[in-house]
C-alpha cells in the first residue's frame, strides 16, 4: 500500500482538527465583534437622532418665546417656556417632556437676542445638543431659528 493514499491519522489528523477549531473560534470572535459594533454604533446613531429632534423642538420653543416677546427677550430658563401652549412634536411633547428636553439640549440662557443674531449658524452656541458621541449638522436648524428671531426683532 502506498503511503500517499493512506488515510490521514495520528498527528496529521489531530493537527488538522486543531486548525479547524482555531478557525471556528476566530470566526465566532469576528461575528461577535461585528454584532457588538453594529449594536454600539446603532445605539449611538439613534441617540444622535434623538438629540437632533430635541434641538429642533427646543429651537421651536425658543422661536415662539422670542416671537411672543416681540423679538425683545431671549429665554432666561426652561421655565420661560411654561407659558407656551402644549405642543406635540411627534418625538417629544411640550410640557410633558420638559425634563427630557432639558437633559438633551443645552441653551445659553445668558444670551441676548442681539448676541444670538450676531453668531453664524456654523459657530452657533446659544443652543447645542447635549454632549454625545455622534455629531450631526445643525447649522440649518440654527439658521432657521435666527431667521425667526430676526423677523420677530424687526431686523
Describe this structure as you would to a colleague:
With 155 residues, this protein is mostly helical. It has a domain at 48-153. The protein is built from four helices and four strands. The protein has helices spanning 11-68, 98-104, 113-118, 139-153; strands spanning 87-88, 93-94, 105-107, 127-129. The strands form two sheets. A two-stranded antiparallel sheet has the order 1-2.
> Helix- and strand-based class?
mainly alpha
**Residues in β-strands, percent:** 5-15%
Helix content: 55-70%
Spatially, the strands of the biggest sheet line up as 1-2
Average pLDDT score: 85
Count of alpha and pi helical runs: 4
From the spread of the alpha carbons, the general shape counts as: elongated
The radius of gyration over CA amounts to 28 Å
Overall strand count: 4
Distance between the termini: 100 Å
User: Major sheet, described briefly?
Assistant: 2 strands, antiparallel
Amino acid at each position: 500500500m502506498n503511503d500517499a493514499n493512506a488515510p490521514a491519522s495520528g498527528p496529521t489528523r489531530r493537527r488538522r482538527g486543531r486548525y479547524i477549531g482555531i478557525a471556528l473560534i476566530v470566526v465566532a470572535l469576528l461575528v461577535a465583534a461585528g454584532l457588538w459594533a453594529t449594536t454600539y454604533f446603532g445605539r449611538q446613531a439613534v441617540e444622535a437622532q434623538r438629540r437632533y429632534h430635541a434641538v429642533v423642538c427646543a429651537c421651536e420653543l425658543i422661536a415662539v418665546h422670542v416671537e411672543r416677546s416681540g423679538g425683545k427677550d431671549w429665554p432666561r430658563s426652561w421655565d420661560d417656556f411654561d407659558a407656551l401652549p402644549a405642543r406635540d412634536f411627534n418625538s417629544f411633547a411640550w410640557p410633558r417632556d420638559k425634563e427630557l428636553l432639558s437633559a438633551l439640549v443645552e441653551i445659553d440662557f445668558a444670551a441676548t437676542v442681539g448676541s444670538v443674531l450676531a453668531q453664524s449658524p456654523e459657530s452657533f452656541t446659544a443652543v447645542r445638543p447635549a454632549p454625545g458621541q455622534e455629531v450631526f449638522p445643525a447649522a440649518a436648524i440654527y439658521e432657521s431659528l435666527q431667521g425667526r428671531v430676526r423677523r420677530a426683532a424687526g431686523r
